[in-house]
């Protein structure tokens, strides 16, 4: 049993005729301090698993346990002190009319933290943004800077578990590396537990100790990082995914 | 602050505001700069500014008493001249003075309707849009019911129940003018309620009230402000219409619509009696329309910002 257990999770959207069964009986267990990856193609239900964990998608069957205790729906306020999420698109995840200061101050106000001024300044410097950014609006920031703000917002509540929903897929390659290194550093410094969703196997191989391959809402197989690097996948689908991740290859002449 | 000389403009447009207020003022200043470059909007703003000043300074501007006329034998229905800029009406009252004092009534009507109808519309619309489901259904059906009330008929009912007067006209106009704002606010809310920044607020444990007030409302207000400003002309016209029908302001109050009503008997021979208040209504309505158009160009969240 780990820090975060997902047991036989089902997620069903909508009512009977147009029902979408997005996640079908997915189980995995994330140990404390581990970085766990979920990979799969678009529509495989990997993001939905994250959303179900944090309460943005319904848990239609199975259970989610945090520290051995089943979480309730709707999640209590304390749940969000333990679990936070970073969204995929930094252009959509910050309120366009709120300054960075307000973005960071609001979670502190909601959760009743003290020393807010210090915490905000520290959160900004932790993600590599100077105090000059504090009173800017999101439209005055680049995509990478926005994503840093989103990370700062998630970490300002000092959670144990950080859910990362393709945190770099909306950024260009050089910024991707920057944000990934930032996430790596923060995990090492704070002993965070990551659950990271990505369609990019290279990113997952870099970040995660273990990973789950999903297809059509089902878990296909679980791999360790070493197995991923050694390409010792046991199922056809994972092998296809690995081959696809190597990129374009010209057809061999016959 | 820093050693380098810094103009106020630089301070406002700074990329790195040093305080909450500087950020807010800077944002405001940027909006103002965009607004200022719009000529028609500035014309509208000037007209509304003149209206507000006139209303405030009415006792200083008006040369004559608006209610008590001059000599009924010699000063009735005088044509415009230097001593009576817009002529006099059938009770020998100076029309210019009455228009100046009437601007107060117009402004009160507009302000009160805006203050009553706008928050009500925003509240109903955002709550309905945010919660969805049966809350949405109930609130929107209530909105439909209010939309179905004809303004003038409702005003008539109010006047019958409470007696004629400008207050009852204001209440009637306010009650019938919030539903479009509610629908607009709901539509805006629906487009943002599943966005990531709202989800992020939910993930911080924010209550629904905090999300609606702090996150949804600020994004709805700009389109509502535009809509309200554009509706101002309609509100003025409705108030004038009620006055014209004798349901709004009561004589001898110098309400513009009522002035037109009393002047229509002399329309052929003494055209100025009805025309001057008509021109005032026209100019002020136009001013609000220009202003609303300009605000739309500047505030529309679907613009470049």
Automatic annotation (TrEMBL), chain A:
<keyword id="KW-0813">Transport</keyword>
<dbReference type="InterPro" id="IPR017871">
    <property type="entry name" value="ABC_transporter-like_CS"/>
</dbReference>
<dbReference type="Pfam" id="PF00005">
    <property type="entry name" value="ABC_tran"/>
</dbReference>
<dbReference type="GO" id="GO:0005524">
    <property type="term" value="F:ATP binding"/>
</dbReference>
<comment type="subunit">
    <text>The complex is composed of two ATP-binding proteins (GsiA), two transmembrane proteins (GsiC and GsiD) and a solute-binding protein (GsiB).</text>
</comment>
<dbReference type="InterPro" id="IPR050319">
    <property type="entry name" value="ABC_transp_ATP-bind"/>
</dbReference>
<keyword id="KW-1003">Cell membrane</keyword>
<comment type="similarity">
    <text>Belongs to the ABC transporter superfamily. Glutathione importer (TC 3.A.1.5.11) family.</text>
</comment>
<comment type="function">
    <text>Part of the ABC transporter complex GsiABCD involved in glutathione import. Responsible for energy coupling to the transport system.</text>
</comment>
<keyword id="KW-0997">Cell inner membrane</keyword>
<dbReference type="GO" id="GO:0055085">
    <property type="term" value="P:transmembrane transport"/>
</dbReference>
<keyword id="KW-1278">Translocase</keyword>
<dbReference type="InterPro" id="IPR003439">
    <property type="entry name" value="ABC_transporter-like_ATP-bd"/>
</dbReference>
<dbReference type="GO" id="GO:0005886">
    <property type="term" value="C:plasma membrane"/>
</dbReference>
<protein>
    <recommendedName>
        <fullName>Glutathione import ATP-binding protein GsiA</fullName>
        <ecNumber>7.4.2.10</ecNumber>
    </recommendedName>
</protein>
<keyword id="KW-0472">Membrane</keyword>
<dbReference type="InterPro" id="IPR003593">
    <property type="entry name" value="AAA+_ATPase"/>
</dbReference>
<feature type="domain" description="ABC transporter">
    <location>
        <begin position="6"/>
        <end position="241"/>
    </location>
</feature>
<keyword id="KW-0547">Nucleotide-binding</keyword>
<dbReference type="GO" id="GO:0016887">
    <property type="term" value="F:ATP hydrolysis activity"/>
</dbReference>
<dbReference type="InterPro" id="IPR027417">
    <property type="entry name" value="P-loop_NTPase"/>
</dbReference>
<keyword id="KW-0067">ATP-binding</keyword>
């Amino acid at each position: 049993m780990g820090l975060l257990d997902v047991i036989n999770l089902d997620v069903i959207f909508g009512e009977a005729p147009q029902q979408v069964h997005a996640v079908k009986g997915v189980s995995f267990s994330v140990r404390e301090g581990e970085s766990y990856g979920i990979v799969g193609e678009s529509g495989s239900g990997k993001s939905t698993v994250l959303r179900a964990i944090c309460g943005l998608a319904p848990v239609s069957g199975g259970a989610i346990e945090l520290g051995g205790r089943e979480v309730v729906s709707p999640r209590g306020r304390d749940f969000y002190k333990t679990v936070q999420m970073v969204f995929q698109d930094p252009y959509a995840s910050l309120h366009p009319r709120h300054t960075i200061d307000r973005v960071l101050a609001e979670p502190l106000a909601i959760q009743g933290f003290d020393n807010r001024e210090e915490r905000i300044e520290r959160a900004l410097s932790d993600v590599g943004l100077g105090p000059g950014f504090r009173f800017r609006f999101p439209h005055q920031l680049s995509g990478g800077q926005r994503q840093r703000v989103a990370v700062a917002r998630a970490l300002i509540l000092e959670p144990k578990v950080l859910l990362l929903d393709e945190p770099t897929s909306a950024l260009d390659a050089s910024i991707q590396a920057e944000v990934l290194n930032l996430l790596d550093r923060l995990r090492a410094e704070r002993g965070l537990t990551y659950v990271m969703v990505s369609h990019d196997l290279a990113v997952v191989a870099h970040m995660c100790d273990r990973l789950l391959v999903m297809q059509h809402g089902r878990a296909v197989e679980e791999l360790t990082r070493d197995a991923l690097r050694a390409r010792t996948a046991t199922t056809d689908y994972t092998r296809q995914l690995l081959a696809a991740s190597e990129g374009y290859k010209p057809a061999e002449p016959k | 602050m820093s050693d380098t000389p810094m103009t106020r403009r630089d301070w406002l447009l700074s990329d790195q505001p040093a305080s909450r207020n500087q950020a807010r003022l800077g944002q405001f200043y940027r909006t103002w700069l965009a607004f200022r470059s719009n000529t028609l909007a500035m014309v509208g703003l000037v007209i509304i500014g003149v209206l507000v000043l006139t209303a405030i300074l009415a006792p200083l501007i008006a040369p004559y008493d608006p209610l008590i006329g001059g000599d009924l034998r010699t000063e009735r229905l005088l044509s415009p001249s230097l001593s009576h800029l817009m002529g006099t009406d059938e009770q020998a009252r100076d029309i210019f003075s009455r228009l100046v004092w009437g601007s107060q009534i117009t402004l009160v009507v507009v302000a009160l309707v805006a203050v009553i109808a706008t928050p009500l519309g925003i509240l109903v619309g955002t709550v309905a849009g945010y919660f969805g489901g049966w809350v949405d259904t109930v609130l929107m059906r209530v909105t439909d019911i209010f939309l179905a009330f004809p303004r003038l008929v409702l005003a008539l009912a109010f006047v019958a129940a409470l007696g004629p007067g400008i207050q009852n006209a204001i209440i009637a106009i306010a009650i019938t003018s919030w539903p479009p704002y509610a629908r607009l606010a709901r539509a805006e809310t629906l487009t943002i309620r599943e966005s990531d920044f709202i989800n992020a607020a939910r993930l911080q444990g924010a209550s629904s009230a905090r999300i609606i007030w702090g996150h949804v409302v600020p994004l709805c207000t700009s389109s509502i402000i535009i809509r309200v400003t554009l509706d101002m002309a309609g509100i003025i016209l409705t108030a004038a219409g009620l006055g014209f029908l004798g349901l709004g302001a009561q004589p001898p109050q110098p309400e513009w619509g009522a002035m037109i009503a009393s002047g229509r008997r002399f329309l052929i021979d003494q055209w100025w009696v009805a025309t001057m208040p008509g021109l005032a209504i026209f100019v002020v309505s136009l001013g609000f329309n220009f202003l609303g158009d300009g605000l739309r160009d500047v505030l529309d969240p679907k613009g470049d910002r």
